[in-house]
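Memo to structure team: turn this sequence into structure tokens by end of day. - J.P.
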Amino acid sequence: MAGMFSTKGRYALRVMADIAAHDGWVSLGDVSERQGISRKYLEQIIATMTKAGYVLSQRGKGGGYKLARRAEEYTLGEILRAAEGPLAPVSCLDCTVGEICPRSDECPTKPIWVDLGKLTSGFLDSKTLADLVVEERHEDLL
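Reply from structure team:
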């Protein structure tokens, strides 16, 4: 398994953490430079975060982006869901596609995937954006 989350989800967390770590309006160019992510890709991610109501935007000189709420009020799970969609570990548990696996009632692996989904969601929903900012600042001090 290469990874449970795409670059879009991972970068969404990095962008949100970067914005949270800086006071005032943050330019996308500065985020791009600090995070080593192309500005074009960041524009797609920030559009998703803006649409979800997670960031505010302001055009013009001195503008940019800032969090709509305090960093402590965002869970990593909600940011990943906005970027990625459902966090189901396997597609047969993703109820948003409108299809139910025909083997769902008899699948011997389903309980494992359900439990993994609960663990993953529970963990990500227990961590906040502020936790990432604290970790980033701690690493800067080392």
